[in-house]
Amino acid sequence: MKTTKKVKSTGRFGSHYGVGIRKRVLKVEERQNKAATCPFCKFKRIRRKAAGLFECKKCGAEFTGGAYESETLIGKTIKKMVTQKSFASSAAELVKEETTTSYSDIEAEVAKSMDEDVAEEVEVVKEEKPKKKKATKKVKKVKEEKVKEEKVKEEKEVAKKE
Q1: CA nearest 71: which of 37, 24, 28?
Q2: Which residue ranges make up each domain of the chain?
Q3: Which of 33, 37, 73, 94 is surrounded by the fewest CB atoms within 10 Å?
Q4: Would you tell me how many other CB atoms lie within 10 Å of the CB of residue 38?
Q5: Residue 15: pLDDT band by 50, 70, 90 thresholds?
Q6: Rounded mean pLDDT of 92-114?
């Protein structure tokens, strides 16, 4: 593989495709080949299976991320919010204080909608059932061939009896 000081790994393209595209490819490849850690076991080697799918080589955990990197900026922000639990604790406090203090109409509606959302989530979890896989074309062809073979065998048996 050709590499150069200025264009690094995109030197393999030579003068093809234009400078702008080669620079974009270089940025993507640098992010893609950067070392990353597993979010579950903190092992330093993970493997990209497909766009957005990653697998840990040690524990075998599969997880999602960005197209080329295991953790995106938005994902990091959400993870930090969840670990701090600052948004959830304040919402829980509002619901607890509903009985002791008087709320305005808007705050009461928010607390009521939070309770309804929790109830809906429980119902949705109960209603979900695994979907049955549909037969593929190959499976259908194999079944049709078996049926044809059985018919041929039956016809032979009938011919032998006559």
Answers
A1: 37
A2: 1-33, 35-70, 85-129
A3: 73
A4: 20
A5: confident
A6: 61
Quick check: 123 pLDDT over 80? no
Phi, psi of 14 (to 5 degrees): 65, -135
Convert the pLDDT of each residue in 19-66 to its tens digit.
999 999 998 888 888 888 998 898 988 988 998 899 999 999 999 888
Is 52 in contact with 58 (CB distance < 8 Å)? Answer: no
DSSP state of 13: G
* CB-CB neighbours of 97 under 10 Å: 13
| pLDDT band per the 50, 70, 90 thresholds, residue 103 | very low
Quick check: helix, strand or coil at residue 90?
helix
Report whether 37 contacts 21 (CB < 8 A). no
Residues 6+ apart with CB under 8 A from 16: none
> 57 and 63 in contact (C-beta within 8 Å)?
no
Task: Yes or no: say if 111 and 94 are a contact pair by the CB < 8 Å rule.
Answer: yes
Class of domain 35-70: mainly beta
